[in-house]
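Hey Z.,

So I finally got round to the fe (ii) ion thing we talked about over coffee. Here's the setup:
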Amino acid sequence: MGWLRFPDGELGRWACLGTVTDRSVRVWLRDPTCAPHEARLWVQGTIAATATLTPSPTHDGIAAADVVLPTPAPGAAVTVEVAGHQRIAALAPAAGDRAAVRFALGSCHLPFVRRPQGLVVHAGVGIYPAMARVLRARGVQFLLLLGDQVYSDGLRQVQPRRVLRRRLAAGMPLPPLAAVQAWYRRLYRGFFAQQGFRALLEGWPSYLMWDDHDILDGWGSLLHVGPAEQHLYAAACAAYLEYQHLHNPGASLADAPPFDYHFWRGDVGFYVLDVRGARDYRAGVLLGEAQWRRFEAFLEEATARGVPTVFVGTSIPVFHFPPVLIRLLEHMERPPGSDGRDRWSSTRFRSERDRLCEQLLAWQAARPDRQVFLLSGDVHAGAAFWVWRPGVRGGLHQWTSSALTTPSTIGHHLANWLGTAAVNVGEDRYRARCRRRELRNNFAVVEVQPLERGGHRVTFALYGYDPDRGLLRAHPPLHAQPR
Ligand SMILES: [Fe+2]
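And the result:
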């Protein structure tokens, strides 16, 4: 499927952090020699906890483990030492604590372009050091990366789906699954080794979720899924488990899709939906009933905990393009048909969209201090929407950041500008108003501050990056608080 040499090489022995609680830190390690390593958690100059990581020879030399303190130390600054690497983090506030939460939101990491001499990084990678400076200055505690952390098909001439289909058409067998899996692993090692992105993963604990390009373009929205696509999905799924999912709360290599997860920080709840793992446009299934049940249990737990603010990650935004356009596109077999079918408001997924919105609207309306924020990526534009249903009290915020580095075109810019401006055309149930829009590469910082009267003041700071001038542009921050 093509041999790639990455400009910044590939990950070798390397470590980063995932889930952080008030008494534990998840350590992710790759060591191709598969030698066991002890991870040491330092608090105030002493080793307060250790865990042994044993990289797996059948999982590309990867291991992950939670290093757990004997007792919680909410907010403590900790250092993790493992395999010669040092990583720092701040432990989470205790459950229910009214403490500030600050995180960065981003998606779509495609830092390479293909030239005759091979892959090179493009000028857009300048966003990463600029982003790191902002995150440091704003005291960001963790990253939430919502999809397309690798592009299996984003580099010209590397189209695995086409390669496998051609083989089948020529009467050749599919390559062994292990070979396809090795190819996805190599993508991860190359994409994550890009120095700007790698520095982010080294600098902050990260929570991740895949989207279609981590698998193949339009996965779950394709009209024809045959052995070639199933083969790619199985390989992408295994590599996603190893390189991304293992960062997330409670994740293990034995998990099966969908890979949704949740966590709590103080009195704030996070649920990250997996909108790819169960998706099947032909069957009209988006989240799948098992994921719905887990999500509904999360909202019930948020109520039981007295949590006033919840964030719901969905790599694909619930609102962005006008339904009238989606209805036109979704019947086209070829692109942009699958882009239309990808939308929550496409014909087959609309009932699940309404189920999500109605549950969230009802939850936020039940207490005056509650707020709900949808967080998204996917569309290669940054945006903030206020969404409501006429006749229902309150509404939902939807904040999107995409793409970190994926290059855009004038066509993309135009589609995003017109699409967000006309978002209500053909929509008969909800209303959305676009309050921020960034068409260039971007990231966002979200800050959650407790209010004395209850609930939170939540701020969305969106930053666009101009690669030609190497300049970061901060949009005026958007503040939200209970109405
Ligand atoms: Fe993307």
